[in-house]
Fold these 4 entries.
Entry 1:
Amino acid sequence: MSETRRFSGKTTLVTGAAGNIGLAVARRMAREGSNVILLDLDRAKLEEAAASFDTDDVAIGSIVCDITDYAALENELDKAESAIGPVDYLFNNAGYQGAFAPIHDYPVEDFQRVVSIDLVGAFHVLRAVSRRMVARRSGSIVNTASMAGLQGPPNMGGYGSSKFGVVGLTQVASKDLAPHNIRVNAIAPALMGPGFMWDRQTELQASTNTQYFSTDPEQVKKEMIAGVPMRRLGDIEEIPGTVAFLLSEDASYITGVTMPISGGIL
Ligand SMILES: NC(=O)c1ccc[n+]([C@@H]2O[C@H](COP(=O)([O-])OP(=O)(O)OC[C@H]3O[C@@H](n4cnc5c(N)ncnc54)[C@H](O)[C@@H]3O)[C@@H](O)[C@H]2O)c1
């Protein structure tokens, strides 16, 4: 696909930017002319990610921050906006998958941890950034939900409920922010790989020993792919184009939508 430079002179904040999806989207936004502020909890991975940009026509900034800490987030955003520029676009994407266990065995602390990152953390970022956008009467936001937020997969109580929450947050925020000329959409990826997330997910589903999956991770992979109408995994590089589209003026009348990136699983 040919790319244009729809975001020249603008600034994009990407959370979870040291991770697979965040970095792929950050790279796409930079290629399309946007300055990028990379935010992640993991300092070492974030430094590596920032060093991987070989561009001299856009600015790349980094924020090491835990999105569960609202005060730290506000503080770091102030500094990054002063250094790089006001945030025009937000990819609100940091996330954590958590434990895999049926609800009656699901670890209580892990449930709280997943919700505090995937839902409360996403709200923190949305609040802190949209306040700034409201003051400027302009902005576009994409949240990362998941197919787990549109269907409730077994053994993923913390993650599934948090991602349902992200879909709800997207719908509420799209209405709250429409009067301020700000659009809010979400993506719902499913079964991306190969890679660490795919291996972890299939190994942990196999280990739950429930009726839904085989106890052999390789068999779980086959079972899951058999449930995808397109009969293959999604590639991480199939995500950035959709996010860039939703952030851009090409999607100027689209808000409140959660777009599955799922090979046909609905
Ligand atoms: N990969 C998939 O198959 C898949 C499918 C559906 C949804 N998702 C969602 O996509 C998003 C990105 O996932 P990914 O595959 O790139 O995973 P990843 O693990 O590669 O990246 C997630 C990043 O978020 C960061 N992070 C976690 N907690 C944080 C916190 N409290 N504060 C700041 N940063 C934090 C991590 O350090 C990591 O770099 C997540 O929200 C995930 O739930 C992924």
Entry 2:
Amino acid sequence: MNTPIPLRGLLRTMILLRRFEEKIVEVYGRQDMKTPVHLYIGQEAVATGVCAHLRPEDYLFTTHRNHCHCLAKGADPTPLYAEFYGRVTGCCRGMGGSMHSSFPALGILGTSAIVGGGIPHGVGTALASRLRGDGRVSVVFFGDGASEEGTFHESLNFAALKKLPVLFVCENNGYATASPLANRQPSGDISRRAAAYGMPAERLDGNDVEAVYEAAGRAVEHLRRGLGPYFLEPATYRWKGHVGPGEDWENGARPRAELEEWKPRCPLARLLRRLETEGFDRAEYDLLLAETGARLDEALERARSAGFPPLDQPEHFLFRQGEC
Ligand SMILES: Cc1ncc(C[n+]2csc(CCOP(=O)(O)OP(=O)(O)O)c2C)c(N)n1
Ligand SMILES: [Mg+2]
């Protein structure tokens, strides 16, 4: 790629993603955020590096682990937090919880917590873009577990057949709930299956935001040139448990030593080290952390102080025309 990688912009996004979720960890014990939360801490380089190439009108589909994909696409933190608190100002008006984020103005038409459920949705919007000739691309984020669903194969086959502008991003974090990949698949190489459908498929280090940015750049350019779908398989690791703010070794779901092995590979620390070799000042990083933290504290408080949905008004459940 000839254009320089916007490292500082990527750093700002990664700090936002990390601090957004750290705040959830901080407040979750108060028991007033009732939604289950599937945290993304440790995987931030993937959403950051991919979404940096997207335009506001491009479509994005994600999963139960969706907060950071939405933020990286440009979502406002306040309606996300408000949704987690079940407030009327939430992105689903307090009726969806953290697994169903929706920001139609940002091309996030709705999120499915059914594993693999977002994959055909992204193929559908890509087909719509092709028929309309509107130049939008679709990106679908999903986990290694979703590659075991039938819809994964149906969707990849159809997208390749019709040469649709859809980027499949399989975030291989090595686990589906408490099941390690090695116990579920004969070969851990998911991208080979995508390649078999006749699309470019790359495996990469999902904790290296520069590598993700470059691969996603190649992929999105391929889509925009009308050359058909593209598949990325970034390898990464989630620091928190499958659901909730714990770490999943306490309950025997995975070995603590494995988590400790991955922590030094922190994608944010890695980018910071890289920037420091170019003279980036640590004080600037600390300032960014503090500013982002203060902004998120405000968002959290604004979210928590809003009212609950009017459960006696059935029309509250209906989407207004033009909302999606
Ligand atoms: C069709 C379906 N089966 C099972 C579940 C329960 N479930 C929720 S998340 C999950 C694991 C998903 O693993 P993966 O796709 O790798 O995503 P990750 O949680 O690692 O981000 C399972 C089995 C579900 N939501 N939908
Ligand atoms: Mg997984």
Entry 3:
Amino acid sequence: MLKDRTGLAFFVGLLLAGTAPDARAHPAHAKPVNYPFVVGFERFHSGMDDEAYLAEGGFILLNELNCVACHAPPAVLAEQFSGVVATELDGVASRLAPLELEIFIRNPRFAKRDTTMPSLFAGPDRDLDEVAALRAWLGTLTKEIPAHPLGDIERGRALYHRTGCVACHAPETGYRPPGVPDNAEIEMAGLASVPMNLADLYDLNALVEFLLHPNEHRPSGRMPDFGLSVADASDLAAYLKAGPDLVLPENLTEALTADAPTADTALVAKGRELFLTKQCHACHTMPGNTDAHQAAPSAKSLASLDPAATGGCFSERPVGGPVPFYGLDLLQRRALAAALKRLGERSALDPAREIDWRMKQLNCYACHERAGIGGPETSREVYFGFSGPEAIAMGRDGHLPPALDEAGKRLVRERLEGILFGPTRPVSSRPHLVVPMPVFRKESVAPFPVLFPAADHGGAP
Ligand code: HEC
Ligand code: HEC
Ligand code: HEC
Ligand code: HEC
């Protein structure tokens, strides 16, 4: 049985909730977990104490936490463990204020406790001059951001709760989607939600830009593009920035200008160099430089790591030097150790297993069920909006995305390509749906049009 790891936290949260607006009620202020949050592990592999199943979760972590960027996987598994490319840092100084930028470099867990970015400056040997240099350099990475008209908080709030965001992110506790009868109880979401606390820290216009182009901003491809209009993105951003009181802060533009770093050229140059020596480029592409992989990240190979290690990246406290600190919890360490132990037995995945592997990474399961796995959590179904009385009459089919069983039989490869990445997406056969099929990064979904037919016909596509 899959068990909910956050159940207790929610229960405690409920007991503590008083009459004052509870910060946790708002999705961008939801209570974070105290370890790096990886949705595919959290939903599917954290609740069952079966060694093989936990190891499967460990494999997901090896990829999603980008361990494989420094600890090279065996050549035969290189394609499977391609890792993730982290947030594009070009323009970061137009998103985060100098102080927040500094905190993120120094210890990202202070800016976002459940972040998947490990800390490289939390060890006892941390050098704050290096932090300052990195901040000085990242501080020069500004980008022209269009000033969008101020969005409408209430419209954004309604949109957020009907357009599919809540498939992955937290609903606002206590929010009642329209159409839910007054006497019906709104169930708490049981499964953990993808954190989005940075929405609170980003500059408002930068947040709008992010929502319009998530695939460029986050090359990880984990946050899909909903094809939002500028007006819708502005409304959503206003809601996310407004926080639990549903009021926008007064100093919306001051944040980025208050303490603009003066560009000390020597310091900036040092920061630029540190980006490579501190191995930031293991996960981030080097801004302004397309061939910065010259100094390939170096550490022991994945196969040579000791599953029983208690040091290095498995250490409970930051050890410093070149070793990153993730703040892994005990279960994650066990899963990772189990995966390392089974690395030798890991083989190429057949199409059905590869579909499952990728659907967990990209969280397709938040919206789609396949082979009895995933699908929207029952308590979240109310956040998949109905378009009108006709859709309501259709029941669940009127608002929930289709199950993907036999997708490869129903849909030919060209059609699948069209649905997943165009160039022009086919006209929907389900115009009653409010939640769209969002656009994922093409690199992330490119294998699916081949995999679905191969898995569902039991042969070559
Ligand atoms: C930015 C690069 C980097 C990333 C990312 C990284 N590591 Fe490491 N890791 C190191 C370095 C450097 C060491 C020190 C030993 C060495 O040179 O391999 C180390 C050491 C270790 C050790 C101890 C090695 C031993 O045999 O004593 C383990 C275990 C480990 N890492 C596991 C992981 C796991 C699991 C992840 C992902 C959650 C990860 N590492 C992510 C760089 C990295
Ligand atoms: C399929 C799951 C999924 C859906 C649906 C989704 N998101 Fe996300 N979102 C993510 C993931 C995963 C990340 C983190 C991505 C990363 O760091 O690479 C993210 C990040 C974000 C962030 C950045 C904040 C932070 O702390 O990283 C914001 C803001 C955000 N999402 C808003 C939205 C909004 C608004 C919607 C609805 C229009 C939405 N998301 C729908 C998965 C999703
Ligand atoms: C093991 C991979 C990894 C390494 C190494 C790494 N980062 Fe990150 N970084 C990430 C991930 C993943 C995110 C997105 C985190 C999130 O949204 O929760 C991120 C986000 C950031 C952000 C916030 C950007 C934004 O606009 O939201 C900054 C700044 C940053 N990293 C700087 C650095 C610097 C500087 C270094 C080197 C000292 C570094 N990172 C090393 C994975 C990494
Ligand atoms: C936010 C919810 C959401 C997420 C996340 C999502 N989808 Fe979808 N998907 C939909 C909706 C809604 C449709 C139906 C679109 C229509 O018919 O108009 C759909 C349709 C599809 C179809 C066509 C199915 C059919 O029978 O017509 C495929 C294939 C598909 N999605 C694959 C994926 C894959 C692969 C992922 C992960 C990379 C994914 N989807 C993530 C909402 C989602």
Entry 4:
Amino acid sequence: MFTITLKNNKTFQCSANDTLIEGARKAGITLEHSCLSGRCSSCKVMVDDGSSEPTMDEVALSQKEKEDGFILSCVRTPKTDMVIRAEDLSEYKLAVPKTLPAKIKNIEKLTEDVLKVELRFPPNQPLNFMAGQYVNVIKGNIKRSYSIGNSSKENTGIELFIKKYPDGLLSQYWFNEAKINDLLRIEGPRGTFFIRNNASYKNIIFLATGTGIAPVKSMLESIAGLSEDFKNKNIYVFWGVKFVNDLFWSSENLGLNIKYFPVLSREKTPSTEVGHIQDVLLSKNIDLKESVVYACGSNDMIHEAKNKLTENGLPDFNFYSDAFVTSN
Ligand SMILES: Cc1cc2nc3c(=O)[nH]c(=O)nc-3n(C[C@H](O)[C@H](O)[C@H](O)COP(=O)(O)OP(=O)(O)OC[C@H]3O[C@@H](n4cnc5c(N)ncnc54)[C@H](O)[C@@H]3O)c2cc1C
Ligand code: FES
């Protein structure tokens, strides 16, 4: 067993056979993560002391990040005692993931390549989750990740926003075969993409591309229920899609004072911005030193946004993300 020390000096014991995330979990400590397979970089941490070895290729790390001392704690086992700059998220009391049956309650085609699928659980098996978390959907031997798109107030059912991938195995099922009352299995809740209690910042900025709006919608709905805590905040939402017909959601009817910027990358209209969301955000001259950013969707957007925003004053640790990397 090795002793692992975190940012707040909390320690836990981790065996040489467990990844740092798994060892922490066994000790009752939650570290930031999402895919748990080395592809999204949510679990990236700086090592201040000690050594570890990768259980698989850390594809989500650049050569420079590796040279600078970063590792992916979901695919690293310790070789010595270690000191790592990881945040301890235990205060959030996340529900333990479980597997439960779910039936399709409704399917709605929102755009040419996005479906909204509502799933319901047996009445005695609700799913407790934090707004922003995701689930794995299991159909036969296929397992794919989807973010929960509704708020955590309603836990007898969830809604998912599903993008069609032309050669995608589960896309084939969702878009050509799925019907009401089909029985699936759900594994979750998963991930640590949820609103943090760092309420001292003036601005909360949400960045989403495509179906990455799902967890943002969930978080906004949960913020709406806590409007007292958030009424003095400036809430910004930048949502990027290709064409105006891809916009299947709007921030109206939430009862929140949101500054909402739909951004199109391939079309110009009078009521939308054009370009990439991270550039549109920078053009608004928001004080990034006083901001927290939650970004979800394409991996490229997340990497570019993090680099550009931290170069422009956003504190490094105020950027939270969930990258929709391919699940297989
Ligand atoms: C934590 C997490 C949350 C997610 N939440 C959502 C969500 O809410 N809604 C949603 O639509 N998707 C979401 N995704 C992405 C989704 O899980 C994958 O896109 C999934 O692989 C699609 O399954 P499929 O069987 O249709 O395609 P697959 O059979 O897995 O893939 C077929 C081919 O399609 C392409 N492809 C598949 N997924 C992607 C991708 N994400 N980016 C680029 N190319 C891809 C690849 O070329 C791949 O070889 C999430 C992913 C993660 C990790
Ligand atoms: S790379 Fe570790 S959680 Fe995704």
